[in-house]
Structures are given as C-alpha cells and as structure tokens.
Amino acid sequence: MGYRRNRKILWFSSCHLLMALLIQLLTGCVPVPSATTTIPPALPTIIPTASPAPTASPSLTPSEIPPRTLLFYGDSSLAVGDSGDGKTHVGFSFVINLANMLAPSNTLITANYGGHTAKWGYEHLDEAVLSYQPNVVTLWWGLNDLDGCPGVFDRDTNKLLEYKVEALTEIHIQYLKLQIDTLLSQGITVYVMTPLPVLMGQLPWTHFDENNNLVWEENHWCNFNSALLSLVKAQRVLVAQYAADGQNVYLVDVWQIYMDHPDTDKMYMDIVHPASNGVKLIAEEWLKVFEASQR
Q1: What pLDDT score was predicted for residue 62?
Q2: If DSSP states are collapsed to H, E and C, what string results for the chain?
C-alpha cells in the first residue's frame, strides 16, 4: 500500500488536485490509527448474482447447485466507504464483477469498512460476518494495518523503520489468523487477498490537527510499498501454512496481479483503490482460485 509503475495512468496535474481527491476518497481509508476505529459495523451490501457460470460438473445445471452465501469482508480496497452507511461513494468493487460471473444460486454480500484493520475485523467478526452464516468468506485487510507513513517511517529522515514494520505486521498476522481460525471452526472456506500496492509506491504523509482531524500533507511522501511488501510476504507465508495442513484457506494475490500489469490502463482510480480494469483482473483471479479450490 517502489513496486508499481502504471505509466499510462493520468496523474494529477497539481498537488492541490491530488490532495483534494485524496481527502474525498481516502478519508477514513488510509491511514487511520487503530485506536480511533471503534465504530460499530454498518449493514453489509447484498449483491445479487446476474448470470450462471460454468459448473465443475457438466451433469449439474445452475439450479441444481446448492445455494451458497459468499461474504467479502475488508477495508476500502473492497469498496470505497462503509457498507450500508447511507452515503454515495464513487469507486469500484471486484464483487460487482463477480456478480456477473457466478451462478445465480449464490448470494454475494459485501461488508466493507474503510480505514479499518485486521484487528478491528476480528473484533467485529460476529456481527459483520458470522451473523450472515456464510459458506465462503474472503478477507481483504492490510492497507491500513501499518498506520501509513507515520506508522513505519521516521518523519525527519523519511527512513523506513524496520522494527516498526515487523511489530505492526506481527499484529496484523495475529488478528488475521484469529479471523481465519474462527471461520474454519464454523466450517467456512476462507480466501485471503493481499493488499493493493500504492501507485508509484508513494503515499502522502499525514498528521492530526488540534481538532483530531486527519490532515494530508502536500509535497511530503514516503515509499510505502517498501513497508507494505513485508506484510504481503507474511500473508503469503500464513496461507501457505494453512494449505500445508490441508485447511480450506486460499490466497488471491492482488499484489502480484498489479506487479504483472505495471503499464495497464485503468488499474487505479486514485493511488490506493482499484479502477475498472483493476477490479476486472482481481475478479478473474479470485474466480480462478475459487474454481480451482472446488475441484
């Protein structure tokens, strides 16, 4: 949340325009210290599927497939804003793409909570996820877990503080694992998505003003991807451990998708959220992993 080089994307013509869009799109998204994230979850969004997808067995028609509830749980990478908050948000969600790719017997629920972390996700797992009795849960956390530039960089030197990255990554993995273990204990299949890297690797610095409002700083950036990559690697290791134990936990490597498409148009809508082609590629990768896990 430098490893991404999307040179065809139209970059903002001025820093003021960039900051205005960041404030509109990222307020409550990146980075928000976990101490402030005690808001109870809103009602998730239920997205109906639109058309049948090919089944694993040609002898089954879509109407014969047992209905499943697929819940997608995460931060604003999943969908900008908070689900069910009554506000109009501009953005893209790969779950919308999946609604047209999965059989209509499935129910898709998007439970997105901008600005929150894996710790918050575990603390609200019961009401935000388990209350819907899903069969499949996709977890997409990590963009906020390092607390942005102030969390892992030295303000004076802009140097990456490895010990802080390690400590926050350890907390993230701890709570991601708690979510996974809880879901597995309920017989739920789990898919873990790695974070989206920051466009060009650069994230603006932030601070809180005297009224505790988040302020985005102009012309002051940190190389955030260098920190976020450590969290991505830890997620990969965690999922590999579950797979080695024969557990129903699978990785959807969004980070790698963006690594493989550095010069593709419409991958980002700003610097941290996917655009139309980005969500298309993410949906295709999720479906590929999902179908492979069903065999």
Answers
A1: 42
A2: CCCCCCCCCCCCCCHHHHHHHHHHHHCCCCCCCHHHCCCCCCCCEEEECCCCCCCCCCCCCHHHCCCCEEEEEECCCCCCCECCCCCCCCCCCHHHHHHCCCCCCCEEEEEEECCCCHHHHHHCHHHHCHHHCCCEEEEECCCCCCCHHHHHECCCCCCECHHHHHHHHHHHHHHHHHHHHHHHHCCCEEEEECCCCCHHHEEEEEEECCCCCEEEEEEEEEECHHHHHHHHHHHHHHHHHHHHCCCCEEEECHHHHHHCCCCCCCCECCCCCECHHHHHHHHHHHHHHHHHHCC
